[in-house]
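Example A, followed by Example B.
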Amino acid sequence: MTTGPRPFSQFSFLVDLGIPGGPHAGFQEYSHIKIGGLNKSTDVTMKRGVISAPALQDWLNQRKKAPPQAHRTVAVTLQDEQHQMVRTWALLGASIIKFVGPTLNGKSGDVAIEELVLGVERIELKKEGEQYDR
């Protein structure tokens, strides 16, 4: 994670997509569903956020061209009300399953909603100051 100004500080969850220059996204909601069995993957869903368009588009393009290389270690960091980092989860072997862009409506004051669903091999809770492998 970078230090200094955070463009996604209004969101509770900062997301580093496993490439330099993160965080690349901010979301209001984060959830994961464990699929039964020891060797099954977990789906992680993040909603109500914004994503740095180039970082996401590059990952989507990589997934189309070389699916096995499109797996990454993604970091999701919870922030408190003072924008201090509280906890970080490393999503190991993450790959994009679903991306829903915002519905844009110039007549509405509604918040644009995006949803990103990742399939991950494993989730690890990182201790304060502990680094994760990209």
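Example B, a separate protein, is given below in the same form.
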Amino acid sequence: MFFVLSKILNFLLMPSVWLVILFLLIIFLKNLRIRRRLFIVAATLLLFFTNPFFSNLAMKAWEVKTTAKTELKPHYDYGILLTGMMSYDGKYDRINFWRSSDRLLQTLDLYYDGTIEKICIVGGSGDLLNQDEKESVILRDYLLHIGIPADDILIESVSRNTRENAVNAARMLNPQSAQNSYLLITSAFHMRRAAGCFRKAGFSFDVYVTDRYAGPVTLKPDRFILPKASVLQQWTLLIHEVAGYIIYRMAGYC
């Protein structure tokens, strides 16, 4: 039930949904005064949620601080890689990698330079309707295809959200009794919630953030004045994460 409700809430918290509702009201309401006021609200929200400057400030405040490789320990037994970076095209038997696949690329870099000994991929399907395509299984096959030894890959393929990622990973790795070191790897915007869940599950670890959205604060026209449609998606990610973190804290998951 929690999984289903979280998907519904995620939809309702999308700024694009708010804008669509507002513009539909503007079209169909008969009261001219209310329509004018709603138009001002909708236009203001549209300008705000497509402005790169404000989204950058918000992401900068939320994202977890980046850790340089020089700040890491020389060696970790496991790099725990969180999924949520791809979809699978069954027609062409091909993985469609998203921006967050930087999680995988950074993990491979850490593996090949010897920082992490084994790669532990956690996550099944986060899709509400399709639970058959398990992301960790697909990524394991991909890693095998590019030459990673099977002995260096562990997967957890039944979890559907971040809390289940942590709980199921703890059942598999038994962090409270095993004398292993862990490096948690996920996107900068997602690390705050992920780290809370994994600590709650009994893990002691260092963090390594990837695919940061926040950049230097600048007043250049393309970053301060000109709207960008892609910024709307950044706000969707951020609002989803902040809401998810608050709900997880209230539920005692992190």
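On Example B: The radius of gyration is 20 Å.
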